[in-house]
């Protein structure tokens, strides 16, 4: 059984799902305004490997999408990984009723054939996310959707700090223990050699 | 230090050693030998020490008779809906057919003694579609029966060919004893083995009554207790909290029944239930359905 303390310590990292880049609340049906209509779905397409600029998209999925999903459980998110490295890396945003004005400015001309078709009441906007960092992608998304970022509470901030400290401490400790283990190994090896010499002497 | 050496070596060697000890023990080596001296007693794999004395080897002390289960009062526990919210966030963008909720039921139980193993039918089916492959002589009665029971892939040669070409479009595989020779000759063990799909009599996947087995595999989930934990998939990621709750209840009830059905003297009880998923973290459940801050169940269902 896993040590209870270790387990709870590890579980604290779910904090990373709550706070960080991408922790924001999309406008939903009650909070939608004329400028920023509600978001119904997201779809991301990118290629399996990172070259040709697919890195940012993957990082966006890894970092931002879980947080978005946590804060907007009702928003459906689909991700499609293609094998086509030359193909597009695109994020499709599905707006209810109409696309936001900001979305129109950012809309790319690329089409994402993997994105599910919008329903009658949905309008989609596709963003080209090739060759850009995940933070930039997030900034774009925020601008287009009018998402309200969730600021971490003081407790959460304190916990984040504590986790960071623990991480640094762990690195030091790891180096220290590595040293101890290496010293032990070296000693054992030298002993082995020494024992070999004794054997040789016996044979003399 | 020298005394330890003299004990360990035969007399002839001892004298030899003493005559030429000084060249070995050069200054930098000294501390190393010191360490050696200390180690002789405790070292497990020291051939010299082993041959020397037949010390009564300390046998590994018997551990506690029960699996040690700690007090859960410090454990952060979650309501079902909250746990689902985190898990769904962690599983975002995954293929919904591939990701499953799973539970780990930890038991308070003896280290030895009988284990719980049984099969279970959920109120809401977990497998999206369990695709079953049956290997039996083509054109036989068994083929018809297997197809009728819902096997997707039935045959012998063509199945082997498909598998060799890397097309494995099933997640269970059953073989009829009549085809066992052909199966072994085809050398699929290397491909199917690592995936756990290779039929073998030991796993009960080589059976006469193919059709009944297919029925069984389609319907139920097999589970067993290992090291005081029962792990089993419990729902698709698209399930609503209510569906998941129904499945969870059915499972817990069934496990309780299983535990009660065991020998009277054996006492097994459920100690912790952990909800996890294929790629997500595990959350200890506190038995509540939802808290005030959890989102409504509609938003927690669907892909």
From TrEMBL, chain A:
Composition-biased stretches (Basic and acidic residues): 163-176, 183-204
Domain Ribosomal protein/NADH dehydrogenase: 49-148
Subcellular location: Mitochondrion
GO MF term set: structural constituent of ribosome
Recorded superkingdom: Eukaryota
Keyword set includes Mitochondrion: yes
Protein name stated in the entry: Ribosomal protein/NADH dehydrogenase domain-containing protein
Organism: Aspergillus nanangensis
Automatic annotation (TrEMBL), chain B:
Biased segments, Basic and acidic residues type: 51-67
Pfam families linked to this entry: Ribosomal_L1
Keywords: Ribonucleoprotein, Ribosomal protein
Superkingdom classification of source: Eukaryota
One GO cellular component, as annotated: mitochondrial large ribosomal subunit
Signal peptide stretch: none
InterPro entries tied to this protein: Ribosomal_uL1-like, Ribosomal_uL1/biogenesis, Ribosomal_uL1_3-a/b-sand
Region (Disordered): 41-67, 284-303
Any GO MF annotation of the entry: structural constituent of ribosome
Biased composition (Polar residues): 292-303
Family: Belongs to the universal ribosomal protein uL1 family.
Name the UniProt record assigns to this protein: Mitochondrial 54S ribosomal protein mrpl1
